[in-house]
Amino acid sequence: MAVRLRLKRTGKKKQPSYRVVAVDSRKPRDGRVLEVIGTYDPRQEPSAISIVNERAVHWLSHGAQPSETVSKLLTISGAWDDFRSASDPQAAAADAEPSPDVEPAAPVPDLVLDAPAAGDDPSPADAAASDAEPQNDGEDR
Fold first, then answer.
1. Does the reported pTM lie above 0.85?
2. β-sheet with 48-51: strand ranges across
């Protein structure tokens, strides 16, 4: 059975709210679910997100695939980071604190464009622009 973490729509007409659920991927959007792991209310300002991170990590570690929207919600709630740290403890430890024998990287300078110095030949774009302008030899046509 392929398990997906996705949204189940609830609420009245024109007033949606959602439940974050673990469901068999073959079931319809509002069909039977395996477990409700949270809620999402996009109508509040800011949006209300309530996810039980422990259960989300459980389903992710058992192979559940989140939908695109649920993936964003898991990132906001912190469940995705918990899952990544639980699945790869070495990478989590490396991200948490830098090793003392490695120097921090030098900051990358911003892109600096060199301005032509006084007396330099004009750029080809300037020369093309001056050639495009008509020359008036004093004759009016």
1. no
2. 48-51, 35-41, 15-24, 3-12, 65-66
Residue type, 135: Q
Q: Peptide bond before 66: cis, by omega within 30 degrees of 0?
A: no
Taking only the tens place, the pLDDT of each residue in 62-116 is 999 999 999 999 999 998 998 888 877 665 555 556 556 656 666 655 555 555 5
Q: Are 3 and 67 in contact (CB under 8 A)?
A: no
Our measurement of the distance from residue 58's CA atom to the centroid of its chain's CA atoms, rounded to an integer in Å, reads 23
DSSP 117: P
Fold that domain 3-96 belongs to in CATH: S16 Ribosomal Protein; Chain: A; (3.30.1320)
Position 35 pLDDT exceeds 80: yes
Is the distance from CB of 93 to CB of 87 less than 8 angstroms?
no
Quote the pLDDT of residue 85. 87
Number of Cβ atoms within 10 Å of the Cβ of 45: 6
Q: Compute the distance between CA of residue 71 and CA of residue 79 in angstroms, rounded to an integer.
A: 9
The angle at the Cα of 107, spanning 102 to 108, to the nearest 5 degrees, equals 125
Tokens at 104, concatenated? 């921090």
